[in-house]
Amino acid sequence: MDKPWNNRAWFMVVPVLLIFAMNAVVPLMTLVNYSVQGASGSSVFSFEHVRWYREVLFSDGFHGALLRQFAFTAIILAIEIPLGVVIALNMPRSGPWASVCLVLTALPLLVPWNVIGTMWNIYALPDLGLLGYALNALGFRYDFTSGPIAAWLTIVLMDVWHWTSLVVLLAYLRLQAIPYITYRAAQIDGASRWVVFRHVELPKMGHVLAIAFLLRFMDSFVIYAEPFELTRGGPGNSTTLLSADLLTVATGEFDPGFAAAMSIIYFLMTLLACWFFYRFSTREEKW
What we know:
- 72% of the residues lie in helices and 2% in strands.
- By secondary structure, the protein is an all-alpha fold.
- Strands 1-2 form a two-stranded antiparallel ribbon.
- Strand 1 and strand 2 (45-47) form a beta hairpin.
């Protein structure tokens, strides 16, 4: 008996398509439209071909912001992923201390993102903040408001404090899923702690670490509020990351064509990296 075919079911996906269009397609097409137009006077536009893209790609300001952005992302990923794995490996797997550690680990993730920058600004002030005062009392010349190295150290510490918990929780949940019999078999075979980590725990955590890497990459690459609240991009432009530079061009300098082309390039770089990490995280498990 043939199953009846009812095309009215397609209407069920119409709300999803409308939401997707309003949230993604329409804003993206608006950016594309601005990225190929120039404005001269009120409501007078001209077609500029790829002029804005060419100016962005040859802009020293864009190159500087992009290098700072890659440096920031590389530094925090190089710290947060290994640190998160180490903390997860050393957390208790059962008992009351396991719950206590999980709650304490999750606390930084519960702080609103727009509060993080202000909180660390007060915490790191050289005269009033606990961190700044303690470092200066120990003999270190620390002032993130005037020293680029101190400013970079502060924004990296802030991001590590805020987001390492995400890596810890993901790695910890995957470690909890490893059967006890696996550890028992390794113990009977006389495997060292390093061998167990290298051949049992690390392969099992591979996918969740790839997801953690992807999430942290995307978030760090588009981060804006936290470092901006802390350093306002300074001293000078030393901590002006790509998103802050984009906002300055779009609203401070009011250059919509340049800002739109910059946004499209920014979007394509993020999309390409996400596609690469997605392919890596969904590949067939070899171990």
